[in-house]
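Thread: "does anyone have the structure for this chain?"

Original post by V.I.:
We have the sequence but no experimental structure in hand. Need at least a predicted one for the grant figures.
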Amino acid sequence: MLLDRDSAVVALACRPVELVWRQGGKVVRHAPQLMARLENGSGLLVDCAGRGGPSARLAERARVVAGAAEAVGWCYRLAEPPDPVLTANVRWLAGYRHPRHAAGSWMSALVEAFSSPRPAVEVVRELGDPIAVWPVVFHALWTGVLSVRLDEPLHERAVVSAARREAGAA
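Reply from O.Q.:
Generated one for you, tokens below.
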């Protein structure tokens, strides 16, 4: 979900490639768990370590996969489990990823209302029916139009702001 939310990621695939090599007279096979195609055309291979960290076997395979990825101009990441609060927040926002939640005229009003950081509930109440406005807020947080701290539990008084765009960004 974190890669899906990353604006630099344009495509994701699960176990897209299997690498095969010889090590100590044995054939070793490993399929990284994810591949992300990045907007700059490069790739990112990812394996996810468990809560106890990577096993010795995975750590050794990660070293080989990182070298193979580098050889073709890609990156490799052995990811630790994300913080549980971040996971819960991103999982919630992912429920609002569909563009239907951006429908209507709320988006420009939200960006304007959050031009200065404010508690989310204040803006939602100002703009109208909370049942109509909250999904747009969550969609805007998912897509990065709006910004909020995701390392703290999301709640109605969470301080939200319009995301700062880089110069020249659309």
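V.I.: this helps a lot. Residues 84-162 form one domain.
O.Q.: and Strands lie at 9-14, 19-23, 26-30, 34-38, 43-48, 75-79, 118-119, 146-148, 159-162.
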